[in-house]
Amino acid sequence: xxxAHSYEVALFGEFFAKDLQAILNRITLHSExxxxxxxxxxxxxxxxxxxxxxxxxEPVILRARKEMLERDPKWVLYSYLKPESVRVHPExxxxxxxxxxxxxxxxxxxxxxxxxxxxxxxxxxYIFRRGMLVIQLFQQEQVDPKTQRxxxxxxxxxxxxxxxxxxPVRNTQETPLRGVIDSVLEVQLLMKGLLDLRRQDV
Length: 202
Known about the structure:
4 helices; alpha+beta; transcription regulation; Mediator of RNA polymerase II transcription subunit 18; 8-stranded antiparallel barrel; Mediator_Med18
């Protein structure tokens, strides 16, 4: 593995609404801060993404995210490559990524790069900070095709959890990836018996 890339390390899970309070309590107990979250996310892929896959190369995926609860919300653009093989990292999802703060219209910027919109969702819930990690608990809201506004999730919609590095991490001697993976696995251990966190290829 080279040190050229920066990486995201993540684990994922989901649970029923009836378990929300118990899970919130446990995560709050082991986190430094918490606040509400209502984010809009749009995923883009290259217009020739299928051709790239057919010819054996993996397209770079862009995700534009805007936190709606901020006073002056700005788009942040994330670029992702395919997760590393499960043989290399069986315990957690590890994938190259980069972030880019976009001034102005991130969606037009993505289009100008030759990207097309693949999907759009809103995520509503809570975000926690634990060291170098962020823990997001949220329900997905679908988008009203006419207004582009979120449609509130049904009360029994599954809750989703993402435990991930807050910022891109380089695999260096000072900050080996192993240490970051261990931080994510600590959360997995803390939630054992209440929430099953696992690796997934997304």
